[in-house]
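so the lab meeting is tmrw and i was supposed to have these ready like two days ago... anyway. pasting both below. for each one the top line is the aa sequence and the line under it is the structure tokens. i havent really looked at them closely yet so no promises
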Amino acid sequence: MKPVLPPLNALRAFEAAGRLGSFKDAAVELHVTPGAVSQHVRLLEEWLGAPLFERHNRRVQLTPAAKAYLAEVGPLFEQLAHATARFGVPQAVSRTLSVNAPATFTLRWLVPRLAKFRAGHPGVDVKVETSNEPLESLKDDYDLIIRGGPDTFYGYSMQPFLSEERLPVCSPTLLRGMPLRAPGDLRGHTLLHTSSLPRLWPDWLACAQVPDLRPAAVLTFDHFFLTLQAAIDGIGVAMGPTALVFDDLAAGRLVAPFAGPRLPSRSYCTYVAHEKSGDERIALFRAWLEREGIGS
């Protein structure tokens, strides 16, 4: 008869948390998030049909039955490690995480921050492909997909990680010759448009109570990142999403001449297929995106 084994990832999380007395310390050792450790432990508890830990604020304590279980499980992991060492450990295989994200978001927000993720998680390689296709139209099977939201897709879990608003931005050099003190001053400027987002300027001008404003000129680009680059280069004024121009505003490459109004916008969210929800690499990347999103 084939032996009945518990879920091994859950057992590994239990062993580390029980030995260290902390989900947080176990997460550090296993290179996952504390939430992932908690989820694995909860899965094992459900599988066994009994609690394994008593929770006490930031510490956890094994139940008496779990102590006896750990006393037998722990040596098995040690034996497995010794057996693997005797067999000979092969070269580490790259654990590549495949990500699909919109091009402008990738260029202006994700790429400048990826070095931080790599520094904190050197064992996880990331492969990024860009696309603006709807999630349900993607042909390849990605580990993690970034799109606007929050939306609901059958078979996927969703987590928002970065919110944004939209407001006019331009190069500080542009304002030296033609200041922008009020929305009406845009009449003397070139407004930069993106063909895929035709309503941005009309909606903002309506909110600013100058719906009939006619600018000195209009320049339209087919990609949003080109529109933003044109604003940085002093060609005109663009409608900038706050998340994607955060670094440029902080560095002084762009300025926001008006405090408001600000157009509401959809958040950036991660979408992960349910069958991949237990992947530790995905949990790490999701947690990192959330931490970075808080500061942007």
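ok protien two:
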Amino acid sequence: MPEIEFRSDVTVELVRASAHDSDVLFAARVSTQGEQTLEESRLEGSETEVDQKRDRGLINYLMRDRHGSPFEHNSMTFYVQAPIFVFREFMRHRIASYNEESGRYRELNPVFYVPAPERNLLQVGKPGAYDFLPGSAEQLALVEQQTRDVSVHAYAAYQRMLEAGVAREVARIILPLNIYSSMYVTMNARSLMNFLSLRTKREGTHFPSFPQREIEMCAEKMEAHFAELMPLTYDAFNKNGRVAP
């Protein structure tokens, strides 16, 4: 049987992007300036301090007043490795394109998620307003040991079925939700801001969110790429309470 690997992290890589603040400005100004290609808009840039202030003001206005369509004329594709239970939460967001590896067509690798020691374990409060607190040393040890034991046992059973000639699509049904999968996900800035508003917990947001930590780990890595690609848009998103326009 292949050697089993346990991880406590997620992978998010920016594979391809066509995403610039100028994309937002180009789309927004077509109503007043008429035809202009996206390439011309990017080449023009904002060379003076007055231009930069004007651009920042326009993006902030669009965000504040929720004129959302100009934020859709861009694209970001991410490669994500995470446990399957995280992907099920991802795909609740029907504002992106997903392609995930298939356990019907390939043998799944023995890579399993086990919570890191700093991962909070206790859930207190009521639905929609939970707080999560650290677990005891005994609880941490229990979670780690049981997760490892179940993963090893399930993957061994999976291998036995494959070796007996059972179809991959049948053998996979016994694998636990903490096995890693991989996917490509493509979305525009408006969709990404919607995702970030729901899957990150931040002080000062207009609509507080209480995401599961593992999908928040993915969201934080995606957010870092977004901040670098579209700094004016990202700044306006934060200044206006992290509400998608």
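from a quick look at the 2nd one: The chain has one domain: 1-114+180-245. The radius of gyration is 22 Å. will dig more after coffe
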